[in-house]
Amino acid sequence: MNFDVVIVGSGLVGASLALALKAAGINTAVLEAQPPRPFSAVTDWDSRVYAISPGSAAFLESCGAWRHVDATRVAPIDTMCVFGDDNRSKIEFSAYDSSLRELAFIVENRELQHALSQALQQHDIEVIMPVTCKALTLTDAAAQLELNDGRTLNAQLIVGADGVDSWVRAQAAVKVDTRPYHQTAVVANFTADKPHRGFAFQWFRRDGVLALLPLPGNRVSMVWSTTEDHAAQLLTFAQDELAAHVAQSSREVLGDLRLITPAAAFSLRLQRVRQLVLPRLVLVGDAAHNVHPLAGQGVNLGFRDARELARVLAQRAPQNNCGDYRLLRRFERARREDIAALEWVTDSLQKLFNNDKPWLAKLRNAGLRMSNRQHTLKNLLVQHAVG
Q: Are strands 152-160 and 257-259 parallel, antiparallel or unpaired?
């Protein structure tokens, strides 16, 4: 079985990359370890949601996936309010002030996965599932993947889009630097007494970062990145107790809350890889970087990986195949600054607000108030985030 590109992992980034490569006429296969999950109309809400930037939405539209997202399950963010931990400092970002239709779209993970799966089927892309990889061999001539069912795939390029604990990355012996934050993100969905009006709220607190993101109707999705002990406590709360605690912690900005999905949790860490590319190999998405979720930009970073890699491969010279190292280095150089900038911003903010020193608290809150008055600075931040 011979392909130009084999993508290991059919998650959001891997699937979107496959669609973008298909549009460029590149023969691509996608491997996935999990069996396909049946999708039917649902009335409940997925606890895991993503803030999809307008740039990412446009990329997904160009891939033929965004049109498969149910519009009734999508909520735009018109305004973002970020509060400090002194109950008075804040910075506010407005789509209207930045001459934009919206700052982002909140979409459930389940909806995005289904939309991408529909697009993969519609564009007749080879998806091999469920299957696991047994061995990876990279040579000057080609890359080979041996599968656990005995088949061997030959490709010009292997793409590791298989998540934070990437098998591809480990097989290629790419070094990775990992630092745990000793924090856990607790997620859950609520209905609110007051309408959110397209507002997203975020509070930097002494116990972490609490965010309420708009869902359709009077629903909101909570992401609370907090200490491991506090997260464990949140997960033991009864439904009414958790709703009351979140409402109080969010200053009752949306009134009383009622839990509509069980709370779930995942641990947080910063992860940097030493190399994004090797001859005949590329890492994208969580296999290439893992950042703190306080900026809500992790998945958009992965979509920008997919968009740039597809662009570089589509524009390659006729004499270059997809696994040419010089070609792949072009992709790496194009992505390094964006990745490093988001890693630095999210890590610095996490350190800044996860500190009990009084003088630092005054400094960070004064910084929020000062930044809120700098309209040019705010517009620059918004323009980068929506791309």
A: unpaired
